[in-house]
Amino acid sequence: PEAELSEGIVDIFEAKGLKIFGPNKSAARLESSKAFAKDFMKKYGVKTADYKIFQGPQLAKEYLEEEASFPIVVKASGLAAGKGVLICFTKEQAIKAVEEIMEEKSFGDAGQEVVIEEYLQGFEASILSVFNGNEIFPFISAMDHKKIGEGETGLNTGGMGVLAPNPKFTQAHFDTFEQEILKPTLEGLKQEELLFSGVIFFGLMITEKGIYLLEYNLRMGDPETQATLPLLESDLLEVFQDAHQGKSLDLKWKDAKSCCVVMASGGYPLNYDKGFEIR
């Protein structure tokens, strides 16, 4: 629902006195604009990769030609269904990525602005959480497999499979996440008055130098949700209702493991057929 959230569906519901669980249009920018999110992280001390933001291809390509070191990551700033992130190992690949995003508009309007950022080496972890407007209550961790090919090869997707809890993510990692990612995020939300009841998804990279935040999503992650929710013992409706009322949450989890595997149409995540019967 990220497109609807970014267009202000929550604001419309609330203006009509209707209950809705999710971020208002202003808060949804943390997902709908990677540039906005990166500046938010920097302002409030949330550990994230070094980055540059460009509104046009020429300056972006000049930066890649003259200053950048490789590998590097080129991201469409807007919403691209989890597919607007290109890891580039050479200058030529990075320049081609900028051209695809900004000139050829491979991701449509999402590519009007790009974020070019430091490449981080490590393993990823995903943490969903519920925000009640005052506190953030994290879920258990998950491990998303984003690459289309076997052995984590090929293009990034919205996720091809996921494990929960993340087998590599320790309690020490979780404690660091709370101190260095979650707490400054909460402080930033309060300072910027980005207050709502809804979900905050933290996309993390765990490296030898620490835990970095890759991105926020302001809704349930797919396919992380499919693996995480079966492990939740607490009643989901009650969780959402309590959060909407600003109440504290006591989330309870099963001592078990869960996985989800995604079946995608041939050609995904590029050009692929859809709308036919699944057999």
TrEMBL record:
Keyword Kinase appears in the UniProt entry: no
Annotated ranges, domain ATP-grasp: 38-245
InterPro entries according to UniProt: ATP-grasp, ATP_grasp_subdomain_1, PreATP-grasp_dom_sf, PRibGlycinamid_synth_ATP-grasp, PRibGlycinamide_synth, PRibGlycinamide_synth_N
The protein's Enzyme Commission number: 6.3.4.13
Gene3D superfamilies in alphabetical order: ATP-grasp fold, A domain, ATP-grasp fold, B domain
One of the GO biological process terms: purine nucleotide biosynthetic process
Entries under SMART domains matching the protein: GARS_A
Superkingdom of source: Eukaryota
Stretches that traverse the bilayer: none
Record pathway: Purine metabolism; IMP biosynthesis via de novo pathway; N(1)-(5-phospho-D-ribosyl)glycinamide from 5-phospho-alpha-D-ribose 1-diphosphate: step 2/2
Keyword terms of this UniProt record: ATP-binding, Ligase, Nucleotide-binding, Purine biosynthesis
GO molecular function: ATP binding; metal ion binding; phosphoribosylamine-glycine ligase activity
Protein name listed in UniProt: phosphoribosylamine--glycine ligase
